[in-house]
Each structure stands twice: as C-alpha cells, then as structure tokens.
Amino acid sequence: MGKKHQKSTSQPKQEFIFQKKNYTFMFIGLAFIVLGFILMSGGGSDDPNVFNEDIYSFRRIRLAPTLVLIGLGIEIYAILLNPHKNKK
C-alpha cells in the first residue's frame, strides 16, 4: 500500500552567503561609521546663554560626516562583494 521513500544520500552543501572577506569589509565599514559618529558628538555648551563656536568646527561639519559616508560605501561594497566569483 505505502510506497517506500528513499532518502537521497547526497545532501546539498550548505554554505553561507557571506564569506570571511565580506565580514572583514563590514567590520571596517562599521568602524568608519562609529568613528564618524564619535567625532561628530560633543560641541555643546553647558550654559544655554553662551554660544559655543566649536559646533561649526571642521571636524564636526566636514570630517565626521565624510567618514560616515565612506563607511556606508564600504558596507555597500561588502554586501555586493562576491567572493565566489572565479578569477580568470
């Protein structure tokens, strides 16, 4: 009445989408982003009646956002990187 089901002896090989190279670039990108946000922080004044010009420093206006954007670019590269691609 019932049919016997045979199990396939060849299991498909499971592999991760990302390899070590992808994760390395992801951590580098994350480090750039974190560094950018650390450099962007601060610059406020303790006294609300006193204006602090440090909020407009080169570090907070140009350098930190540039580092964040570079980090995001590295993250995109890490996601799109295909380590399985054969070199010819």
Percent helix range: 40-55%
Q: What's the order of the H and E elements?
A: HH
Alpha plus pi helix count: 2
C-alpha geometry = elongated
| Number of β-strand runs | 0
Poorly predicted regions are: none
User: Could you say which structural class the secondary elements and strand pairing correspond to?
Assistant: mainly alpha
Radius of gyration: 25 Å
Overall mean pLDDT score?
Answer: 85
Please, could you describe this protein's structure?
- This protein has helices at residues 20-40, 58-80.
- The protein has 88 residues and is an all-alpha fold.
- It is 50% helix and 0% strand.
- The chain has a domain at 20-44 and 51-80.
Topology:
Elements: H1 20-40, H2 58-80
Helix pairs in contact: 1-2
Main attributes?
single chain; 88 residues; mainly alpha; 0% strand
Would you kindly provide a brief summary of this structure?
The protein has 88 residues and is mostly helical. It is built from 2 helices and no strands. α1 runs antiparallel to α2 (58-80).
